Amino acid sequence: MSRRQFSASIAAASLGGGADFARGQSPAKYAVVGSGVFGAWIAYRLQEAGQRVTLVDEYGPANARASSGGESRIIRCSYGPDEVYTRMAKRSLTLWSEFFAKAGRNLLERIGVLWMAKSGNPYVEQSRQTLRKLQIPFRDLSDADLSREYPQIHVPAGTVAILEPESGALLARQAVQAVVGSFVQNGGEYVQAAIRSPQGGGRLREIVTANGDSIGADGFIFACGPWLGKVFPELLGERIFVTRQEVMFFGVPPGDPRFAPPRMPVWIDFSDDRGMYGFPDLESRGFKIAFDRHGPALDPDTANRIVSTDKIAEARAYAAERFPALAGAPIVDSRVCQYENTSNGDFLIDRHPEFENVWIVGGGSGHGFKHGPAVGEYTVARIIGAPDPPAEPRFSLGRKSTEQHRAVF
Asked: Which candidate, 46, 64, 28, 38, places its Cα nearest to that of 191?
């Protein structure tokens, strides 16, 4: 579906839904607030389960302020010894592939994910063990292998790597819009509106928009990412940490294919403590370099999205060291997005403690995008009472604290 067709289908669904409410027809069975990757997949899976669903967002699917907005996101299975997220990533790879095949769109670039680290890095060894156990293909590479297969990368002596050949990159903005577009085409309702914070407790009957309209439902799912702390300030204001994350796109040398697929995979660099990762030149948008370190606090509504001079300098220095051919390359694009993490990086997928029919889903930034399909599947199972996949205690609200100690990478 083209952007114009998607916008038209959203507009038609919104107008039709508004007319239904005005005529007094029965409300949607569920209302999902937030049309990022988590909310989109929850709405899509609820619809597949035969439920009526209204999807609500104040800015639009994968908008410029959203954690799900942007050109690309990594999909990889290595999580050290953590089988929970490795299994979810494996499942999501399958579900993304099935969805794109059904939609007739290829927004998953299986170009491989290359993990680089110093020899003896325990996380890499633990990842090897978990990948073997769960029968996920990977290759071990020595520093000699890296120099031979990826001469465009300067690797220090003693660097080793894991290559996940079936992993790669998701074209993020397009992928979210494709899920929402399919949801609307299949009869789902999309409403673009800001939502007032629910008050009280017990059973929530409706949510109210900023202009006073109401959306009634039997159940409500709030999957609004960095806005969760604003919607539920007393409950989540100190349990959801929204941080500024900066991304640069470097122009590749003219006529040089070394920085584009298939000669360049997605990469993650654990060889030192800088926490860098990036993407090849996808869709000729530039070579992406990003920081996987939690930045300062950010307000998703009011923050200016202009990259800082110190981060530009740091990214340039890193590019010149690790990718020498990019020394002095121009920055052709840049992004300021955000992570919205819980205290330790585990997802938050649980019922609201004061509302019997309200669910909260979030805490995914930094590593959550890839898991959208599995999160949708898991959340819908909890809502409708299905036994599979089973409940995961780590996703509960009770496991989330007000002090950050990152444990999921």
From this structure: 28
The domain made up of 3-67+173-238+344-399 has a fold known as FAD/NAD(P)-binding domain (3.50.50)
Superfamily of domain 110-169+241-341: D-Amino Acid Oxidase, subunit A, domain 2 (3.30.9.10)
Contacts of 182 (CB under 8 A, 6+ apart): 44, 99, 102, 103
Partners of 164 in the β-ladder: 113
User: Which residues make Cβ contacts (< 8 Å) with residue 232, sequence separation at least 6?
Assistant: 197, 222, 352, 360
* pLDDT one digit per residue (tens) for the chain, 409 residues: 333 334 444 433 332 333 233 334 443 599 999 999 999 999 999 999 999 999 999 999 999 999 999 999 999 999 999 999 999 999 999 999 999 999 999 999 999 999 999 999 999 999 999 999 999 999 999 999 999 999 999 999 999 999 999 999 999 999 999 999 999 999 999 999 999 999 999 999 999 999 999 999 999 999 999 999 999 999 999 999 999 999 999 999 999 999 999 999 999 999 888 889 999 999 999 999 999 999 999 999 999 999 999 999 999 999 999 999 999 999 999 999 999 999 999 999 999 999 999 999 999 988 999 999 999 999 999 999 999 999 999 999 999 999 988 889 8
Q: Are 105 and 154 in contact (CB under 8 A)?
A: no
pTM over 0.85: yes
Pairwise CA distance, residues 73 & 64, whole Å? 15
